[in-house]
Structure formats: structure tokens, C-alpha cells
Amino acid sequence: MIDVFGRGIGRMALVAALLSSAAFAQLGAGGPDIAYEVITRTDRVEVGGTLLVAVQITLEHGWHVNAVKPLDPFLIPTQVTLEESPLYSVEAMAYPEHKLFRFAQSPDEPLAVYEGTFPIGLRLAVAPDAAVGKHAIRGTLRYQACDDKSCMPPKNLAIAFDIDVVEAGTTLTPRHDALFASLRWDDTGEGGHEAVTAPETEAPEADWKALADDFSVAGRLDGYAGAKDFLAFIDRAESGRPDTAGLSGKRWWLVVLLVLGGGFMLNLTPCVLPLIPINIAIIGAGARAGSKIRGFVLGGAYGLGISLVYGMLGLVVVLGLAATFGAINSTAWFNGAIAVVFLVLGLAMFDIIHIDFSKYQAKVGMGKNESGSLLVAFVMGCISALLAGACVAPVVIYTILYAQDSYAKGAAVALFLPFLLGVGMALPWPFAGAGLAFLPKPGLWMTRVKQAFGVFIVLFALYYGSLAYGIYTNRHADPDAVRESLADAGEAGWETSLGEGLARAKAEGKPVLVDFWATWCKNCLVMNKTTLKNPAVLDRLEGYVKVKAQAEDLEASEEARYYEVIGLPAYLVLQPKS
After folding, report:
1. b/e map of 90-113 (b: 16 or more CB within 10 Å)?
2. Rounded to whole angstroms, how far apart are CA atoms 348 and 499?
3. Residue 145: its pLDDT value, please?
4. Which domain holds residue 59?
């Protein structure tokens, strides 16, 4: 039984890996753990003297951060900044030598990165009039963590340490000779840098939140979109039609029926229907249950196992990817991987490729179960859900992807879609367990049902393949030109202040297009250069007040939190309420 559980869990992990390209567990956790330790060259520093400081950074295994001078100009450099103070000035900095690696996200060009444990050096010049005693120094580590598949949004880690200032002539004790000898203060390459000071923060915008109450969200678009898809998004927002991709409309009853019906139809495939009598016998239901009520309960326990497995798998993937799905879903490699998976599973539907674990269900040994056990029935339901094979996997994968997309667009009820799929698949089991023979007999028609599923799966493969190709061909925008155009956004007809944009839209009675973007969001920069410069898109947005809302840190951005933006790029259409 333990061996069966091990194989089942392994296959569930395989499906999850296909959905998230083996990254969802780390991404869902919000990025890696990162720690720092501040080490000083001497135990104290004289008034008017110089103190060498090393900020020792330690990254979780499997993650890296960009070097201070990334080779890809779209990436965010790793930098330490200290708060300005009359106590000291930063004379120089020393960054470690980067390593060059090729990752899945950059197979053609290497990236300059830091990983593991590495020091960043600072040379502090203490003021001649500095007060004797201990002083607190505060700063920030700015970094963007990546693994082999994806990059997280940039983050700021607060740094704090104390220095002990003493009178001139005091004996100082040096330490950590090897560490400070390794720092390249005078290197003209990557090691030597001018001091970096923290940028001044602008005063927060005054009345955007009060103005936001005068507008309603008419539509939202998450992730990369070409001109055609962007225009379709504007059409939906203006017409009031529901977003069929994210099911933001009110026809959830139709969605529930479709998902339940799809789950029920899975029972009519060759991977499932022939095994129903076998599994009924294994769990002790049917004629062996002793009564129709007990058989109904045993069949219900079996069906509950199926429902919970798909429901839990959906929760793990949907919630695990929630924070980064917008960025992941708008990458060519993700859509390409899904296209390949669907193509393989679609071919399996036509028996061109043979993928089927359901044949192992009849061989699962659970011991004698003559009188029927609810626990055994439940466990067998869980196992059968994992062994259902190629007939079930495409539908399960698409349902979870669909649920993830809907959840990312604000539909929390989408979390229940994978569970409902399992409920639909489980519907016949209580009745079959009670001995009611209402299911059709196996035959050639089951192959036709499977082939019908195959047609839809191949179409999905073509759809995701076209998305991957479209994204890939639009990734050649010059980053400097894009950032320059973003910096000049106000001159190009875009407001850079959400409050000013809403105030103008309210005064003119116009709708608002809000573009949430960040300098670390490559898709944001590409769309700004391609989709948003498309003549048809520009013409369509002529009657809008356009606002670029910069959200470098989604967690810290009040605007992003207010509009429940969980990934970039994100676009909102706001309509005046009156």
C-alpha cells in the first residue's frame, strides 16, 4: 500500500510539474530565503577615519541574483545603498566577480549572476566632527532573485548595523584579513564602483483612492497580449460582455455545469469505464456490500477520494502560482511547454502514443475487503484519480490552468473548479456502488469519445503554441529605447500619476486605461514598444485617459493592492460611475 501511495504521489507531482515547469513550489513561496551578515575590518573606527564594511549575502540553494552589471539590460542589478547621514560618506564600493551561467530562461546568452554566499564591500569615511559612541547605520539591499526557470519581482531587504566611533589615536583591532583582501576596491572592472545613494522618494499621491471610488472596473487584462487580443479586451470592457477567458461575468452556473459535465464524460473513456466494475468489486461495493445504502456510501467514499485529489492538486498549483502566474503565463517557454504537453496527450487520445496507467488499478493490492471499508474505498478513489491516464490528464490540466487564469483575474471561486471536475467524475460511483446498472456497456463508441476529446486537446495545443510563437517574436525590442519611451510617457499622451489621470478622466467624462508596469517586467517593456504602439490600438485608445502606474514592488504598491494586481503586466479599464 505504501508503494502504491509512493507511485501515486510521484505521478501527481509529475502532473504538477507539467503545469508549472517545476517552479511553482518555490515561486509560490514568494522567492528564496535571503540572509545577510555585516562584518567590519576593525572592531572600531576613529573620528575622521575610514572603516571597511562587508555585507555578506547568503542565498538559498537553487537561486541566484543578478550581478551589479547584468548582461541583460532588462534585469535588475544587485545593489547596496546606505541612508545619507552627516556621520559618514561612502567613498567606494566593491562587488564580487560575477559568474556566467546559461539558464532555461536564457538558453542563447549567459547571465551574470551571484549565488551562494558573497560579500559586497563599502568604504566609509567617518566625519571629523562625528560624535564618539555607537551609531546605527541603515541601508537597503536591492535584488531580483531568479531560479533556473523564472525571475521574481525585485525586492528591498532592509540592512541595519552599528559602528563604534572612538577618539583619534585609539588602538584598533583588525580582523577578517582574508575576506577584505578578496575585495577589489581599486578594480576598474566590476569591483570598483562609485558610491550609490538611495533615491529620494516622492511624496505619495494625495487623492487617487478617493477618486477611485468614482470609477468601476469594466475590464482587466493580465499578462502579455498582442494587438489583436488587446483590442478584444477593450471590446469586452466597452460592451460589458463577460471576460470569457477569466469568466469574470455572472454565468457561473454555466461554468459549473460544463465542468461537472466534463468530469462525468471522463467516465465514458476507455481509461475509466471498463474499470468501474473492477473497482466496485475491490472496494467491496455493489452486490457484495450487503445493502444498496451501504454500497451507495462506499461508492460515495470512492468518489470523494477522486474529488479531493483533483481539488487539492488544483489548490496547490493555483495558490502556489498565484503571486507570479501573470509573469509566468506571459512567457514563451511556459506556453510552449503547455503546447507540447497537450500535443503529446492529444496524440495519446488517438493511440499514436500510448500513455495509460489505469491498467495498474486492477493490480493494486489492498487486502481482503469482503464487507467493504470506507477508508479502503476512499484510498482507492485517490489512487484511481492518479492512475486515470491520458484520457483524464488533459482535461485536468486544462481545468487547473483555466482556474489559475480566472483566479489571477480576481475570481476566487475558480479555486473550486478542479474539485468540481472531480465531483463530476465521481457522480456515477455512489449509484454504481448501490448496484444500479445505468452506465452503458463498453464498446467501440468509447474510442470515439476519446478521439473527440483528442480533437479539442490538439486544438488547445495549437492555441498555446501560437501564443508562445507570438510572445517569442515580440521579444526583440531595444530595452534602452523602451525605457526612454516610458520615461517620456507623459509627453506621449500617458499620465504617470494615477490621481491626476483619474481627476482628468472625471472632469472630461472619459474612461481610463491603467497600465501597471515595472522596470523589471520584461513583458511590460515589450508591450509598451509593440502592442501599445500598434496603430489600431492607438486609434482605439484615442478617447481614453491613459495612465502608467509604476509598481516596482507589488506588495508595497497601494494602487496595485487596491486593484488586486498580483502579476505584471496588468491593464484595467475604469469607467466613470456617473
Report:
1. bebbbbbebeeeebebeeeeebbb
2. 54
3. 85
4. 32-193
Q: Could you tell me which residues come within 8 angstroms of residue 383 by beta carbon, excluding any fewer than 6 positions away?
A: 4, 5, 8, 305, 361, 364
Q: CB under 8 Å to 441, separation ≥6 — which residues? A: none
- Pairing label, strands 192-193, 88-94: antiparallel
Q: What is the CATH number of the domain that holds 484?
A: 3.40.30.10
- Sequence-distant (6+) residues with CB within 8 A of 244 are none
HSE toward the beta carbon, residue 36, CA cutoff 13 A = 21
Q: Are 523 and 224 in contact (CB under 8 A)?
A: yes
Same domain (yes/no): 453, 412: yes
Rounded to an integer, the average pLDDT of 229-249 is: 71
The verdict on residue 25 lying in a domain is: no
**What is the total count of domains within the chain?**
3
**Are residues 218 and 261 both part of a single domain?**
no
Task: For residue 393, give Cα distances in angstroms to 319, 320, 337, 418, 490.
Answer: 20, 19, 15, 12, 49
Helix runs in 139-268, H state only: 177-181, 208-212, 227-239, 252-265
Q: Are residues 343 and 356 in the same domain?
A: yes
> And the C-alpha cell for 251?
454565468
For 32, the grid coordinates are: 528564496
Please indicate, yes or no, whether residues 417 and 461 belong to a single structural domain of this protein: yes
Per-state percent for the chain, helix, strand, coil, to nearest 5? 45, 20, 35
Q: Do residues 170 and 44 touch, judged by C-beta distance below 8 A?
A: yes
Are the beta carbons of 429 and 302 closer than 8 angstroms? yes
> Which whole-number Å values give the CA distances from 126 to 44, 135, 338, 359, in the listed order?
11, 11, 57, 75
Q: Is 331 helix (H, G, I), strand (E, B) or coil?
A: coil
* Peptide bond connecting 242 to the previous residue in cis, omega within 30 degrees of 0: no
The answer on 280 and 257 residing in a single domain is yes
Q: Choose the final residue of a domain: 456, 473, 490.
A: 473
The string of pLDDT tens digits covering residues 202-234 is 444 446 888 888 898 888 887 778 888 899 999
Residue appearing with cell numbers 510617457: 489
* Domain match, 452 and 379 both: yes
Cα gap 315→24, rounded to integer Å: 12
Average pLDDT taken over every residue of the chain = 74
Question: Last residue of some domain: 414, 443, 473?
Answer: 473
Same domain, 414 and 330: yes
- Decide if 139 is inside a domain: yes
The confidence band for 379, taking pLDDT boundaries of 50, 70 and 90, is confident
Cell of residue 3, nine digits: 508503494
- The answer for 367, left when phi > 0, alpha when psi is -120 to 50, beta otherwise, is left
Q: Are the C-beta atoms of residues 562 and 212 closer than 8 Å to each other?
A: yes
Mean pLDDT of 110-132: 90
- The three grid cell numbers given for residue 145, joined into one nine-digit string: 532573485
157 and 92 assigned to the same domain: yes
Nearest to 184 by CA among 138, 118, 87, 137: 118
pLDDT band at 132 (very low <50, low <70, confident <90, very high): very high
Give the whole-angstrom CA distance, residue 81 versus residue 161: 13
Question: Cα–Cα distance between 334 and 224 in angstroms, integer?
Answer: 12
